Amino acid sequence: MEKLAAEDRYFSPEELAGLTPEEFVALLRGVCALPGRGYLDHPLVKKIEAGTATLPQLRMFVEQFYLHTRNMMPAFGHMSSVCPFEEARNTLIKNLAEEAYGAVSGTKGHPDMLLDFGIAIGVDAAAAKKKRQLRPSRKVTDYYEFMSFCRPWYVPVAAIGAVMEASTPDTFSRMAEGFKKNYGLKDEQLLFWTMHVEADKEHGDEGVEIVERYVTTPEARAQVMECGVENAENWYGMFDIHRMAA
Ligand SMILES: [Fe+2]
After folding, report:
1. How much is the pTM?
2. Class assignment of domain 22-33+42-244?
3. Ligand 1 ion: Cβ-proximal residues, 5 Å cutoff
4. How many degrees, rounded to 5, is the angle at CA 216 between CA 213 and CA 217?
5. How close is the Cα of 3 to the center of ligand 1, in Å?
6. What are the φ/ψ torsions at residue 42 (nearest 5 degrees)?
7. pLDDT tens figures, 69-83
8. For residue range 7-19, what is the model confidence (pLDDT) as tens digits?
9. DSSP secondary structure letter of residue 9
10. Side-chain-side CA neighbours of residue 211 (13 Å)
11. Residue 31 Cα to ligand 1 middle (Å)
């Protein structure tokens, strides 16, 4: 089958199953980067690069992003541990250990690293920990739970790994540059962003491997496409949350 154009339309399970793994991943990433989806080139990224995002807006975004990274951990743990294939499961559990306490990079848990960045821009860490997630942030976490508990293990892994983490290196390096240039932040305060640039290069590749090996049937391809798109829309909303502050 010929490569399909990344457009906002219904793709049948059969069309998706007719693609090679490379074509499917390229289509999936393209569809998940359409306007209103994902964070690649999100308005917030442009505002950080221009220095026009205000500190209250950045604090709002970081607090809510932090709450998601912390609160999604049980869903992330579930999707990692239920994988029936030893090799893939071990990779996922390694990623989980890195996420939870920085086991691979020898740093610390990613939620705590994000909170450290928050402190550098004036977030009250103790108060942030007690906050509730606002709807755009909660939607991302709730959807991780839905994917993890109501879909096969490879659906959230592909939706998160092959799609979102593939756009992280570009997005987070632009954000880190903007934080340095416009907000006077130092390298050591930007660890959350810079460490994800390297880590997610690897995770993006792992996501592609998982698609190659396990996302092969029409039903599996369709579920990954559906959840990929919805997850990408939720992430757009998470980045948009900065608009809720002045
Ligand atoms: Fe992370």
Report:
1. 0.96
2. mainly alpha
3. 110
4. 150
5. 32
6. -65, 150
7. 999 999 999 999 999
8. 999 999 999 999 9
9. S
10. 31
11. 23
